[in-house]
Design goal:
Layout (H helix, E strand, L loop, with lengths): L6 H12 L3 H23 L2 H17 L11 H22 L5 H23 L2 H12 L4 H8 L3 H16 L16
Helix pairs in contact: 2-3, 2-4, 2-5, 3-4, 4-5, 6-7, 6-8, 7-8
Length: 185
Amino acid sequence: MATPAPPRWDRKMRQRLARGEEAALGELYDRYASLVHSLAHRVLDDDEAANRVTRDVFGYIWENPEAYDPRHGSLRSWIAALTQLQAVRCLRHHENRGESTQEEVEAKVREANTAARADFIVTSMPAPLRDALELAYLRRRDYRQTAADLGVTEDEARRRLRLGLQLLSTAMEPSGHPRLDRRQP
């Protein structure tokens, strides 16, 4: 699990993009292209469509760097939300052309919404909770190993895991996404 970019980095990146620094776009792409592509692919289940969404999202960011407001969340979360919106728009476009059934489209939209909420929750949760979840679920450590790796008591490790899972379980419930500027990709 990648560590989210610090807010200072986010603000500086926005400033660099606003100045038209092509190197900034390259740096941003290197950091987030795999996230954008994987989220788009999860919704669309099509590599070529995911590639188009990736190009569209980074094109939008390049043309509208002011649309990101660091006061409303991390750049990573904003990019994930842009990706989800663009992928759903693409999915609905294909559905309107008769390439998918309404049920398939709605199921993919629900899955994409849940994935985007889960990503936002994980990147927004306090680092101690995120670290405990990463150790337990991505590295397959039990709570005793997690406690030892984090240098905390077993009770504290269990508490962090329980709180992290409670936060993550809210991804299944409809909730507000970070608000985006009216000019979306």
